[in-house]
Amino acid sequence: MKKLLFSALMLASLSAVNVSAQNFGFGGFQSQEITAQFSEKFTDINYAGDDQGYHNLDIYLPKAAAPKAGYPVIVHIYGSAWFSNNSKGAADINTIVSALLDAGYAVVCPNHRSSGDAKYPAQINDIKAVVRWIRGNAKQYKFDASFIGTSGFSSGAHLASLCAATNGVGEASLGKAKYNIEGEVGKYTKESSAVNACCEWSGPIDLMNMECNGPLQMQMKPEDALMGFAYPGNEDAYNLLSPTYFANKTTVPIYCFHGSDDNVVPWCQGEELYKILKERGAKTGFTKVAGGGHGFNMYSPENLKVMVDWFDDARKAK
After folding, report:
1. Alpha carbon distances (Å) from 251 to 201, 228, 258
2. Of 275, 267, 272, whose CA–CA distance to 293 is shortest?
3. Angle at 129 between CA 204 and CA 112, to 5 degrees
4. What is the reported pLDDT for 292?
5. How many CB atoms lie within 10 A of CB 42?
6. Which of 114, 124, 127, 255 is 20 to 30 A (C-alpha) from 57?
7. For residue 73, what are the CA distances in angstroms to 8, 31, 135, 139?
8. Number of Cβ within a 10 Å radius of residue 228
9. pTM of the entire structure?
């Protein structure tokens, strides 16, 4: 519990100074030297049509020759406990992104509004806008928009899986809680925000059940900062924050990775999403990584291959 509280307080302190450290991915410090191989990189493209840095994205195109229809696309989202609005440059570039590029995928790494910039559902509105932007700009950037997947680490995994689980959801309501999940960010609102598959790494998934045996007892919880209020008495709202609520038999394939030694987001979160998806008839998979921490000892060649194969299989099935 002390480790969990320390992690949360560390993230809060970073938020207070307007996190923009490009070499910190909240799974530990990452090398500033990019070793991922790509043919082209486009930096700081605004997907919302405004002048806000939290609405910028980076694009990496693989070295492999583009197929006739263009490159299939993965949106990879950084982790930050939703506290950072400018960490796209630290979004697992040398691990997850590198493996996807080597497999022939274009990778889009977006910023999104932090919990300090705006409360939920602003963050998922931003990710939905990124997907729509990809479809609206497919020709210019050699995207094959017939296949778009999502990936993410930690809070980025939450947004990646929530995006995948809410295909076709506009406004969601439960009890007194009501949220516009789709949002109206950007000028491509007539494009679809639907995605075709997802891989989530170490994500907080059921925000009402963070220890998988009841609400996490902490003085400060990132999800409370995201929502603008605490869980007790707001169960309906927290349900609408959780991918588990939206999971059903039509949910696109979602694979879950979680480390057995994760002391920030317990591994039972990944297992819970896997079990719920399986029970409801969706295609899913789960790897509990022995000795894996929160971003540490997770990205072995074997696990990265599982991720790539997952997306490849989803493309074939589609």
Report:
1. 18, 28, 20
2. 267
3. 50
4. 93
5. 13
6. 255
7. 32, 24, 10, 13
8. 12
9. 0.89
